[in-house]
What we know:
Layout: H1 2-25, H2 27-35, E1 37-42, E2 45-46, E3 50-53, E4 56-58, H3 60-72, E5 75-80, H4 86-91, E6 97-103, H5 106-111, E7 112-114, E8 119-120, E9 123-128, E10 144-148, H6 152-161, E11 169-173, H7 176-184, E12 190-194, H8 195-204, E13 209-212, E14 221-227, H9 233-248, H10 251-260
Parallel strand pairs: 1-5, 1-6, 10-11, 10-12
Antiparallel strand pairs: 2-3, 3-4, 6-14, 7-14, 8-14, 9-12, 9-13
Helix pairs in contact: 2-9, 3-9
Amino acid sequence: xxxxxxxxxxxxxxxxxxxxxxxxxxxxxxxxxxxxxxxxxxxxxxxxxxxxxxxxxxxxxxxxxxxxxxxxxxxxxxxxxxxxxxxxxxxxxxxxxxxxxxxxxxxxxxxxxxxxxxxxxxxxxxxxxxxxxxxxxxxxxxxxxxxxxxxxxxxxxxxxxxxxxxxxxxxxxxxxxxxxxxxxxxxxxxxxxxxxxxxxxxxxxxxxxxxxxxxxxxxxxxxxxxxxxxxxxxxxxxxxxxxxxxxxxxxxxxxxxxxxxxxxxxxxxxxxxxx
Length: 275
């Protein structure tokens, strides 16, 4: 009798535990809905996606998450921090999703879940206007080139450097804005970043910077990042659905034209990145 009671107790406990786990697995989206707020982590030094203009946080990500918030029926709360702290903070639960955005890579896909791409992210070089020593990507051999610390662009630049007769003198920066300042001051010869970013910077500072074409890296895309576990699956599913709706009705293309001057033909998902 005692054994029967014990067995019943264990079965009951297992049932309760399983129910708790099941309920918890759906909690992230439910918690966001209950709070009425989606917490979004990002750095604010990555124009035109996220940056500070006249003291205001602005950029494509701000506009796009405003639309995502409307679709989910929640407000957006931004959490700004340096890029190299974004992924640890996401895993520590400091916010629900990362705006970033981040280049979708094989290594990141193993650990994180990406939303549908928001723009192409292929890497290119920004140089000082009138610098005739750099007319094509290969001309950066042996030169000091700035790039963001802990970025996919850093990996791409190092890979490209190995193909050159003289390796690039890679200079890593906590934020791309610092690399642009050093480029303007002549302390480095160029900055390696994704084409949409440097095209925007060049358009904002005509006569100071120029883009070196063509891009030299493998074709890649930017996406937003969330956790890959079952707890966050309902939330990421909801964000994906909202973004695909925004893409289908033309709002995504309108925002791309606003911030890049042109819209990008992006896939609905990237399952097998080029690198």
